[in-house]
Structure prediction request, 140 residues.
Amino acid sequence: MPTTRRFEWGMMRKRGIERRKSPRISARLSVKLSDEGFDLTTETRNLSRSGLYCRVDRHLPFMSKLSILLMVPVHERTETVIHPIRFQATVVRSESQIMDNGKETHFAALYFDRLRRSDRQKIEDYIRRNLASSSLSPPR
Prediction:
């Protein structure tokens, strides 16, 4: 079983009670995170209208600002089109774990900062469409 080595907590949580204001779904969407010193591409683990959780290849400092490119499937008439959404996000949780194989892996929770209303609507529509068919992630 993985063990947590480093953990930074930025979200309010009280005795296991979920305090998020919006639902989140398990979702595997392509996402690119970038900063002055790096660009990395990964997948989301879960998604809500206000943030995402993903596995990353490095520790991301708490409260650091990142540029995000999130690829969201959008239904347009009779087909689904991948819509790129660009915005700024803040790291609100960062953790590192030592896996069973002894390798270190990292996870980060990102809060969406500067997100256009139309792009937030695309994310909400995606969540709404997938909420019934996707399992909700347990509170972390």
Notes: The beta strands are 3-9, 24-26, 30-35, 38-48, 51-56, 65-76, 79-98, 104-112. Confidence is low (pLDDT under 50) at residues 3-13. The two ends are 16 Å apart (CA to CA). The domain at 3-8+25-131 is CATH 2.40.10.220 (Thrombin, subunit H).
